[in-house]
Amino acid sequence: MLIRAAVGEGDRETVWSIIGPVIAEGEAYALPRDWSREEALAYWFAPQHEVFLAEAEGAALGACYLRPNKPGGGAHVANAGFATAIGARGRGVARAMGEHILAQARARGFRAMQFNCVISSNAPAVHLWTSLGFDTLCRVPEAFAHPTLGYVDALVMYRRL
Amino acid sequence: MLIRAAVGEGDRETVWSIIGPVIAEGEAYALPRDWSREEALAYWFAPQHEVFLAEAEGAALGACYLRPNKPGGGAHVANAGFATAIGARGRGVARAMGEHILAQARARGFRAMQFNCVISSNAPAVHLWTSLGFDTLCRVPEAFAHPTLGYVDALVMYRRL
User: Fold this and answer.
1) Of A33, A72, A117, the CB nearest to B32
2) How open is the CA angle A149-B74-B105, to the nearest 5 degrees?
């Protein structure tokens, strides 16, 4: 698997092909399920984001971004977002992207990484981040309206770098 | 004290006169201390924000906003921001604005309110939100670079509505 920076219009189309179905599914991100391509790409490629694509044998498997969690006095803590192409689940794509993003964050001098809203019902994500050294700092009660499960907790997860 | 919706260009100027010095002080918000008027107002008056001004005897004492903490599946949880004019500290302005925002959030049907980054060294804020029924869900270690104290923790605070 190769993970590389996303560049150019073609990569934006690839990112949309990955994140569009994940956003529409509405189970992993607190983002509007009906977001258009333009809205989703404006979010994923926001000015402070570095965007990466995971590929194998020419096929795009996942997309992720790295950014400061907050500006100003919070800019030494990193945040990141990840989406695995729905057809590529179960192949370790998110783990490879997570390891890549942690290394990139360390290289850029971030002191820690924080996830603000890991959906508690997203067991693969909670398991992955825990196995990559993240602690669950707290559960926010019923912070996420899951499309089939109803209100579920969201986790604040954190690790030093 | 009157708390009312901010409207028009004159109110934008008033908001800037309140939030500009608070942002530049850099002790209460993870926002760039060198933000321009335009950058600060674009943040405070973001499309999903409802902005209010606190006044007494014609003088503006504070500004606050109410918004969803997250879009999509997180939009039932409110978030808010508050700034008291530096010259009006110690007069209960933040408490009055907090009570107003809680009432507004209830009226709009939000189920809870969450603060993501209350600076632990901002003792008046921590005391105020605790006294208004917020629980501290967790401390994020050294999440904020304070201009004089160095790295201090940030608190995730939460209450049901």
Assistant:
1) A72
2) 120
| B144/A74 touch (CB, cutoff 8 Å), yes or no | yes
Determine, for residues B143 and A71 on separate chains, whether the beta-carbon distance falls below 8 Å: no
Question: pLDDT for B36-69, tens place per residue?
Answer: 999 999 999 999 999 999 999 989 999 999 999 9
Stated pTM of the model = 0.96
* Long-range contacts, A55-59 (Cβ 8 Å, 24+): A55/A1, A55/A2, A55/A3, A55/A4, A56/A1, A56/A2, A59/A88
Question: Which residues in A lie closer than 8 A to residue B42 (C-beta atoms)?
Answer: none
Give the tokens for residue B19: 């939030």
Give ipTM to 2 decimals: 0.94
Q: Distance (Å, rounded) from C-alpha A18 to C-alpha A30?
A: 17
Beta-carbon contacts below 8 Å between A and B:
104
Contact A117, B71 (CB under 8 A): no
- As given in the structure block, the two tokens for residue A37 are 């391509």
Alpha-carbon gap, residue B158 to B161, rounded angstroms:
10
Rounded Cα distance between A33 and A35, Å, is 6
* CA dist A56 → A52, A95, B21, B30, B47 (Å): 13, 14, 51, 39, 40
